[in-house]
Amino acid sequence: MIASAPGKIILFGEHAVVYGKHALVSAINLRCKAEVKKSGEIRIHSKFGTTGLDFEVHPYISFAIKRFSEFRDLKGVEVKIESDIPPGSGLGSSAAVTVSTLMALNEEFNAGLSREEICEIARKVEIDVQGRASGIDPFISTFGGSWLFPDMEKFLVPYSFFVIYVGEKSTSEMVSKVAKLKEKYPEVMEGIFNAIDSISIEAYRRINDPKSVKDLISINQSLLRGIGVSTPEIDYLISKLEEEGIVAKITGAGGGGCIFGIYEGKIPKNAFIIKPELEGAKIEDT
Ligand code: MEV
């Protein structure tokens, strides 16, 4: 059985969303495919190698199998992953791996889980691996489309984005870095999160006005820098783009990953173009 699930781009509100603030997130046209077959033992194949249940090399898939086995007795399974989404890029590769694996397991083992249940298990897997998470990544990967969280308002994005990959990052490290800063300076951090909250709401209202969205991208990036999730390399790259009149911000956890901006016909150096995607996780024709 083969299932696929999309990656995502956080337009506004990363990190603040972990503390209940608003965020705008879109599924994107990069997908992860998971092929699942019943077998006598557990084998996981991906670009990181072939392992059994391995919480170091394949944490998301291993926790997905472990959590799925609470619903269906599972002696062995072979899982093969092929993904368009660069790992550690902030484009939702972990959630897409988890959701596509769970959806394929659900079909292969006739577990009868609903889309909502698959999303909920994927959210638990994310917490198993990361410790703290908002749940937006598994939600977007399961359901597709563009959403305002936590209000669950769906919207359409009328443009594409350029994305520049600036190196691998660890989401859990960045999330715990922000948590430490919040513990030390609770009022300062709450103030910044409230400002990010307003940015997400304003961007939702003005999503059809790219000029305003670009202003908000720039303000949100300054605040992400304030909470310590930018890097000197990202700051340099963004200031170089600004010299060409292009605005960009981090998407996802930061500390590396990707930066993005609205694509307006000119592809910046080393960038690729991604589109918002309506379709969530699905079973692929075999
Ligand atoms: C990671 O894609 C986004 C963060 O806001 C963490 C989360 O929402 O779970 C950094």
Outline of this structure?
This protein is of the alpha+beta class and about 290 residues long. About 40% of the residues lie in helices and about 25% in strands.
Structure description:
Helix content is about 40%, strand content about 25%. It is an alpha+beta fold and about 290 residues long. Strands 1, 2, 3, 4, 5, 6, 7 and 12 form an 8-stranded mixed sheet that branches. The chain is globular. The termini are close together. (R)-mevalonate binds next to α4 and α5. (R)-mevalonate binds near residues 10, 133, 134, 136 and 171.
Keywords summarizing the entry:
globular; Ribosomal Protein S5, domain 2; 40% helix; 12 strands; binds (R)-mevalonate; four-stranded antiparallel sheet; 286 residues; eight-stranded mixed sheet; alpha+beta
How many helical elements? 8
The level of helicity is 25-40%
The CATH architecture can be given as 2-Layer Sandwich
Whole-number total of structural domains: 1
> Which stretches are low in confidence, meaning pLDDT under 50 for 5 or more residues running?
none
Which whole number gives the mean pLDDT? 96
Number of strands: 12
Bound molecules: (R)-mevalonate
Biggest beta sheet summary: 8 strands, mixed
Summarize the helix and strand pattern as letters.
EEEEHEHHHEEEHHHHEEEE
Here the CATH topology equals Ribosomal Protein S5, domain 2
CATH class, named Alpha Beta
Distance between the termini: 7 Å
Alpha-beta classification: alpha+beta
Shape descriptor = globular
The gyration radius over C-alpha positions equals 19 Å
Strand fraction: 15-25%
